[in-house]
Design brief:
heterodimer; A: 60s Ribosomal Protein L30, Chain: A; 4 helices; 4 strands; B: mainly beta; five-stranded antiparallel sheet; 31 strands
């Protein structure tokens, strides 16, 4: 079962790599060999004009190229932490673009999976904090499901207060520890 | 009076040899410091056992230390009497009356074939010169400490009317830098043994009622999973690894089932399952967090923490099903409930101002008594006689264990040389 899944993923990324190779590097628009499902019917290019015409078809890059966008520092996907207010599991406005970006990426890359790891600050019962961290991870998961990621791609877990990023005992440390991390499979 | 031979040696030597990973040397002792004593201490003279110099260690010293540590006895000076009496007929009772002792232990040690020893003692009423209790034991050198604890238990029971807990063990977690260890030590701190060692957090150790298994939560697979370690068979099973987080194990009193907290259905809720593993049956249904389950001694109820009402409070639900009943109404943070062994009250953690302290609430009167007063106290666990509560606290930034008597008077602290100790679980009485 495991081996089949791996071979499916491998052939899927091979296909995507081939699609990537199909586009020309100089910025000219040509239709990719693997078509975007939402593409409109291509207009006929006018040969008398001597240059390519915008056919109204734009291919969306699907990844599988040499650079993993989730690790690209210039890409929002390399940002992985959502921070929370005290006693809250609501995703604040400032983090919605980040959650949206990851959800969209997962929607468009069905082979990828994430673990959402919830954390809390150090105050209070260990087990109650496991549940609070879980609630934060579940909030992020819910938002991602609404934005198109699939249940099979997401697992939400909690570390409670057991794995603080900041070992300090002040407000700044506590704020840094009230957090959900998005971790892609294999990391 | 009777002759008992202890069957503890097998279990004890297994424990000493037991580890689930590479062998470790036994650690230095868990240190214990007594902070406060009881109000009406019983004056008792513990005379040295005649002939115990031939032993590798002094049994008398362990008996005296046990009784001292309980905070309920005032140890009367037992020295300066020669020759050391070995039985009641050799005791000068006027001496002991003059020293203020109410009771006195006298006894002797003699060698037996096969490297065994005979250890016998009698507890005497000093005023009347009469025996209160007495036992004889035939034991091996490896059983000396256990025998001393049995003697202390017998003296404690006779003089206080309560069951003694000197022969019990305590499990706890030690964090040293990035390493976590689940350890078990004797109730006097002696002989800590590492059961599990990991680079990832371990929490919530819980003794099975028969004292042979420990449930706990580990993050070693990068998510919370509940395991059960069998101490005798030196084996471990995964009890609960459902999608999401699995934590907060609690044993039913007959040891056949556990309650656990699972997030697999979209929120942290309480389920029960067989101690062998398998499917989980949902127990609580709320729109909030339900966690920290704990079974009543009769197995019919579970108390737990829930924030279904907006803030974490303690509730009780029947295992057979039905609505949960809220129990705590003071303040906005009441968590970590644990039934007292007699089922008449429960210990818990209450936040007051910014401080977290251990308190006890009586089921009948609903009265709350706060027992501790440091800044951060957590994880209370009752001794099996209900007289002491061990819990985790912090002193000068270091995690230590402490215990307080259920009336708040006697206090002790336990620390290790390096690292932080937390998450204590007091083991059951040995049968």
């Amino acid at each position: 079962m495991k081996r089949n899944l791996l071979s499916v993923l491998f052939s899927a990324s091979f296909l995507l790599a081939v699609a990537g190779c199909g586009s020309t590097p100089e910025g000219e628009q040509t239709p990719a060999p693997v078509e975007d499902a939402t593409a409109k019917a291509p207009a006929k290019p006018d040969p008398s004009l001597g240059k390519p015409v915008d056919t109204g078809v734009s291919g969306k890059p699907l990844g599988g190229g040499s650079k993993d966008p989730t690790k690209d520092p210039s890409n929002i996907l390399s940002r992985r932490s959502v921070f929370f207010d005290f006693d809250s599991n609501a995703v604040k406005d400032e983090f919605k673009p980040l959650v949206t970006a990851h959800a969209t990426y997962l929607r468009d890359n069905r082979g990828r999976k994430v673990i959402l790891q919830g954390n809390t600050d150090e105050r209070g019962s260990r087990e109650y904090n496991i549940a609070l961290g879980q609630r934060r991870a579940d909030s992020v998961k819910q938002m991602m499901l609404l934005l198109g990621a699939q249940e099979a791609q997401l697992e939400s877990v909690s570390f409670g207060k057991e794995k603080p990023r900041n070992p300090g005992h002040d407000e700044a440390a506590w704020a840094e520890n009230r957090r959900v991390d998005v971790v892609y499979e294999g990391e | 009076m009777g002759i008992r031979s202890l069957g503890l040696a097998g279990v004890l030597s297994l424990l000493c040899g037991l580890l689930f990973s590479a062998a470790f040397a036994a650690h230095a002792q868990l240190r214990i410091e007594i902070i406060g004593g009881g109000a009406n201490q019983i004056p008792v003279a513990i005379l040295p056992l005649k002939g115990e110099d031939q032993l590798a260690q002094s049994v008398t010293r362990i008996v005296a230390a046990d009784l001292q540590r309980s905070g309920l006895f005032k140890l009367v000076d037992a020295g300066g009497v020669t020759p050391v009496p070995g039985e009641p007929s050799e005791v000068q009772f006027p001496t002991w009356r003059a020293r203020g002792a109410d009771a006195l232990m006298v006894g002797s040690v003699s060698p037996l074939p096969d490297n065994k020893v005979d250890i016998r003692f009698r507890l005497m009423d000093v005023a009347k010169g009469q025996q209160l209790t007495g036992y004889a034991y035939q034991v091996t050198p490896a059983q000396l400490r256990a025998t001393a604890h049995r003697i202390a238990d017998a003296i404690y029971e006779k003089l206080t009317g309560d069951v003694g807990v000197f022969s019990t063990r305590i499990a706890y977690i030690v964090k040293n830098g990035k390493t976590f260890e689940l350890q078990v030590a004797d109730a006097d701190g002696f002989g800590p043994v590492t059961i599990i060692r990991s680079d990832e957090p371990i929490l919530s150790p819980r003794w099975a009622p028969d004292g042979n298994r420990l449930a706990y939560v580990s993050f070693r697979a990068k998510k919370p999973i509940v395991y059960v370690a069998d101490l005798a068979k030196q084996r471990e099973i995964v009890l609960a690894n459902f999608k999401g987080s699995n934590s907060a194990p609690a044993w039913s009193p007959d040891g056949s089932r556990l309650a656990v907290v699972l997030s697999k259905d979209g929120a942290s809720q309480i389920y029960t399952m067989s101690a062998e593993g398998g499917p989980a049956t949902r127990l609580t249904s709320s729109s909030g967090i339900d966690t920290e389950p704990n079974f009543s001694p009769d197995g019919r109820h579970v108390i737990f923490t829930s924030d279904r009402g907006g803030s974490p409070q303690i509730y009780r639900v029947a295992v057979a099903g039905g609505a949960a009943e809220r129990l705590t109404f003071e303040g906005s943070y009441n968590v970590s409930p644990r039934y007292a062994p007699d089922g008449k009250s429960f210990a818990f953690v209450q936040r007051n101002g910014g401080k977290f302290n251990v308190a006890v609430q009586d089921f009948g009167t609903r009265q709350v008594q706060v027992l501790t007063d440091a800044a951060v106290d957590e994880s209370p666990s009752f001794a099996p006689n209900g007289r002491l509560i061990v819990y985790a606290t912090e002193v000068r930034g270091r995690g230590i264990l402490a215990s307080v008597s259920s009336d708040g008077r006697v206090k002790q602290r336990f620390s290790v040389d390096t690292g932080d100790v937390r998450e204590p679980a007091w083991g059951p009485l040995l049968k």
